Amino acid sequence: MHLDYHLLDVFSNQPFGGNQLAVFADPPLDLPASTMQLIAKEMNLSEVTFVFPPADDQNDFRVRIFTPARELPMAGHPTVGTAFLLAYLGMIEAIGKSGTLTFEEGIGPIQVTVESDEDGNPDKVLMRQPVPQFLDIYEDREAIAQMLSLRLRDLHPKAPVQVLSNGLPFLYVVVKSLEAIRRVNLRLDLWQELLLGKPGENVFVSTTETENPGSTVHSRMFAPALGVAEDPATGSASGPLGVYLLKYGLVESREMVSEQGIEMGRPSFINISVVRQGGEFTDVTVGGACVYVGQGKLIVR
Question: Which residues are registered as beta bridge partners of 218?
């Protein structure tokens, strides 16, 4: 069995930046989930997607997302990159300068919009995310700091260490400075003791000090349980990040840019937009550019 795949760099407007993604745009309908998982492990990227016809005719495609370790109910850069690819391949029709479609994912329908440039080529993709829930607060900040190879005084005093989830939970930790976030080194022994098997096992660290003047926040993400030591761009975590930063008064603007992947040599830029009405968060969107970088064929025996 020969399976064609496409490679993209997501949340970057230049090749070799952003987060890599492999998309199987036309796999066999009877491809087993176990084989998809083995393929994702073989590709060894943060995520791999497989595109199928929808179960509900009101939706456009069914998208299944796999890390090297497990299938995810939803993820940001795979959703954004898959939508970009489908437009790039002409598998969706743009309406004017943008085309909106709905993906069936593990948490339900996800709306994405593909914007086109003046020549009609896909340019930017926006993903509407579920409004996140604020969950557990970790009171032992000293233990969290040690897990990150930091000191307690490196953590931002006004930012709780808290789990947020929009379908995929992350533990949000805000530090004071770029100098501190560059020193982050996840200690797997303490991570296993504190977080493994709990909703906060995916750790998202950020600071409002940035390297680029157009950015709002500098971010890093660690997910050993997903088989991802560090992720260069995490769209699913960036929407809740924007809500978190607004809720706790760490930023003022509802339009933000999160820079990520810089420590990995894969700079990524994720646009975040949050709508707040009457004190309630009502809409969250993340988006960014993508670059098509290649294609290949996988032989499955």
Answer: 207, 259
% of the chain exceeding 70 in pLDDT: 98
| Closest listed residue to residue 133, CA positions, set 287, 257, 284 | 284
The residue to which tokens 């040599």 are assigned:
265
Residue 96 confidence (pLDDT) above 70? no
Q: Show which residues are catalytic.
A: 47
Of 127, 197, 130, 204, nearest in space to 163 by CA: 204
**C-alpha span between 257 and 216 (Å, rounded):** 5
**HEC per residue, the chain:** CEEEEEEEEECCCCCCCCEEEEEECCCCCCCCHHHHHHHHHHHCCCEEEEEECCCCCCCCEEEEEECCCCEECCCHHHHHHHHHHHHHCCCCCCECCEEEEEEEECCEEEEEEEEECCCCCEEEEEEEECCCEEEEECCCHHHHHHHCCCCHHHECCCCCCEEEECCCEEEEEEECCHHHHHCCCCCHHHHHHHCCCCCCCCEEEEECCCCCCCCCEEEEEEEHHHCEEEECCCHHHHHHHHHHHHHCCCCCCCEEEEEECHHHCCCEEEEEEEEEECCEEEEEEEEEEEEEEEEEEEECC
Q: Structure pTM?
A: 0.95
- Count CA atoms closer than 13 A to 64's CA, side-chain side: 21
State how beta strands 2-10 and 162-165 pair.
Answer: unpaired
Give CA–CA dist 232/267, Å, rounded. Answer: 7
Residue with tokens 């500098």: 218
Q: What is the mean pLDDT of the chain?
A: 95
Owner of token pair 């660290």: 205
